[in-house]
Design goal:
Layout: E1 11-18, H1 21-31, H2 35-38, H3 40-45, H4 55-69, E2 76-87, E3 96-108, E4 114-124, E5 130-141
Antiparallel strand pairs: 1-3, 2-5, 3-4, 4-5
Length: about 140
């Protein structure tokens, strides 16, 4: 989609993704090796009562489903920033994560031919509880 096709308030639904305990431990072992993510015995003694997903894994798992949706195509030039990440509730193995993605800002570049779109991601679990939110700004080609 080109920059002009995005309108403030537009929303998209992202298909659910479920993370297994094995996937959580594997991801964390490579990218976020905190014991709360990789050591079941340690995690059971902590405030969450068990292994939880890395917040970065929560974001990337939903991001992959967003990309598969096909909204971002060859008109994307680059991502320009991620802001206001909030990890609100823990994500446990077997939680089903879905997201609503809302266009919250559009801005045409003064140089023409491109513009940015800022999206708000609200990630919820199977109980409709918000677990993570973040904003991402992407630079798109413009038609005009």
């Amino acid at each position: 989609m080109y920059w002009e096709e995005f309108k403030i308030g537009q929303t998209y639904q992202v298909e659910p993704v479920t993370l297994s305990e094995e996937e959580i431990i594997d991801f964390a072992g490579k990218y976020d090796p905190q014991r709360i993510h990789i050591d079941s015995d340690f995690a059971k003694q902590g405030m969450f009562g068990g292994i939880i997903s890395s917040g970065y894994q929560t974001i990337t798992a939903v991001w992959a489903k967003w990309i598969e949706k096909g909204v971002l195509g060859d008109e994307v030039i680059a991502g320009t920033g991620v802001d206001k990440i909030r990890w609100i509730k823990p994500v446990y193995p077997k939680d089903s994560l879905s997201a609503e993605v809302e266009v919250i800002q559009t801005k045409l570049s003064s140089k023409g031919g491109k513009g940015t779109v800022t999206f708000l991601f609200t990630i919820k679990n199977q109980s409709d509880v918000t677990v993570t939110t973040f904003e991402i700004t992407i630079l798109f080609k413009a038609r005009g």
